[in-house]
Specification:
heterodimer; A: 107 residues; mainly beta; seven-stranded mixed sheet; four-stranded antiparallel sheet; 11 strands; 50% strand; B: 122 residues; 0% helix
């Protein structure tokens, strides 16, 4: 199965800062990479699909890029409400797999 | 816009069968528009995809090979629900279980239930 490795595991960030989270796949997955946000005591929410496609209702400060094995989720101008754990997910091959998560804390 | 809600026992004994149900609202489960799936997250660990089912008169299922021998996912169209059964559970199956869905033509998860914690303990 394809292993997704996210970095960093944890990030403490000041509001308005830019946040970059990376997700590396153990083999090429094209653009079959999706990003989710999970806030405490909530279920995950889809942020970005197919590496860079935006989702209706998701703030424009969230963006994604990458293809093949290396992907990035960027949060421009972090807001307090963005405190959450972020996960990447690959659907290139079965079984679907997820990254271990990156926790973003607001300083 | 779908809403998903898990239900089932929060405590299961080792070697027994874990059974969870996901109630779907917002659309009929008897449609070829969506897939229906389950994922879980053990405490302190990452998310794991358990499997999915696509129902359109007949059914098509996929199970994670790591769990395939113990998992069954099924649909009950009369109740607009789908279910997960995981047999011969051990403490390693203790996790937050989510029911999930997305458009059949997509490969991402569009909707998640709120999650239900299942503990395996005697």
């Amino acid at each position: 199965e394809i292993v997704l490795t996210q970095s960093p595991d944890f990030q403490s960030v000041t509001p308005k800062e830019k946040v970059t989270i990376t997700c590396r796949a153990s083999q090429s997955i094209g653009s079959s990479l999706h990003w989710y946000q999970r806030k405490p005591d909530q279920s995950p929410k889809l942020l970005i699909k197919y590496a860079s496609q935006s989702i209706s209702g998701v703030p424009s400060r969230f963006s994604g890029s990458g293809s093949g094995t290396d992907f990035t989720l960027t949060i421009n101008s972090l807001e307090a409400e963005d405190a959450a754990t972020y996960y990447c997910h690959q659907s290139s091959s079965l079984p679907w797999t997820f990254g271990q998560g990156t926790k973003v804390e607001i300083k | 816009q779908l809403q998903l809600q898990e239900s089932g026992p929060g405590l299961v004994k080792p070697s027994e069968t874990l059974s969870l149900t996901c109630t779907v609202s917002g659309d009929s489960i008897n449609t070829d528009t969506y897939y229906w799936g389950w994922a879980r997250q053990p405490p302190g660990k990452g998310l794991e995809w358990i499997g999915s089912i696509y129902y359109s008169g007949s059914t098509s299922t996929y199970y994670n090979p790591s769990l395939k021998s113990r998992v069954t996912i099924s649909v009950d169209t009369s109740k607009n629900q789908f279910s997960l059964r995981l047999s011969s559970v051990t403490a390693a199956d203790t996790a937050l279980y989510y029911c999930c869905s997305g458009f059949y033509t997509s490969e991402n998860v569009d909707w998640w239930g709120q999650g239900t914690l299942v503990t395996v303990s005697s």
